[in-house]
């Protein structure tokens, strides 16, 4: 099993310095909100980063590699598998701030969206553009497109 470094006050400051003003950090009192999902599992993170852009995610992952701390990505927290829970401690990386639908290309059937876009919003945007988004994960009004991809959630196969 891999051994990780704990997040010291100095390391938390380094993480904060590496983030843009678009991102923020949750520390201490509000960590419980990020310690569980829809399952019965619970693991308290040492720190939560609310990513505001992909550059902040890149910076956080580079710091994690340099300082040897775990990063657990988290979308809407609606999963039942515990995949968004920090079982090894470290940082929970919330992608909920990456909630923009950037582009819909109807000619190529492509939609470029942030990982934090709610799945139902993807379906509604596709429909408004004359397209159909067929996946139907449970909790479509809560689950994010990033979480669906990370956990292979898409509803019952046909």
TrEMBL record:
InterPro entries: FAD-bd_PCMH (IPR016166), FAD-linked_OxidoTrans_Type4 (IPR051914), Oxid_FAD_bind_N (IPR006094). This is FAD-binding PCMH-type domain-containing protein. Pfam families: FAD_binding_4 (PF01565). It comes from Desulfomarina profundi. Residues 41-158 form the FAD-binding PCMH-type domain. GO terms for molecular function: FAD binding. Transmembrane segments: none annotated. It comes from the Bacteria.
């Amino acid at each position: 099993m891999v051994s990780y470094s704990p997040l010291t006050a100095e390391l938390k400051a380094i993480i904060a310095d590496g983030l843009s003003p678009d991102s923020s950090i949750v520390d201490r009192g509000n960590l419980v909100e990020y310690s569980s999902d829809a399952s019965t599992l619970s693991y308290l993170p040492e720190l939560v980063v609310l990513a505001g852009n992909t550059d902040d995610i890149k910076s956080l992952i580079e710091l994690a590699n340099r300082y040897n701390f775990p990063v657990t990505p988290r979308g809407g927290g609606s999963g039942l598998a515990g995949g968004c829970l920090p079982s090894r401690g470290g940082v929970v990386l919330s992608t909920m701030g990456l909630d923009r639908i950037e582009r819909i290309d109807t000619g190529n059937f492509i939609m470029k969206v942030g990982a934090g876009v709610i799945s139902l919003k993807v379906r509604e945007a596709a429909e408004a553009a004359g397209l159909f988004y067929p996946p139907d994960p449970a909790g479509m009004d809560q689950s994010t497109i990033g979480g669906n991809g990370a956990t292979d959630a898409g509803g019952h196969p046909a």
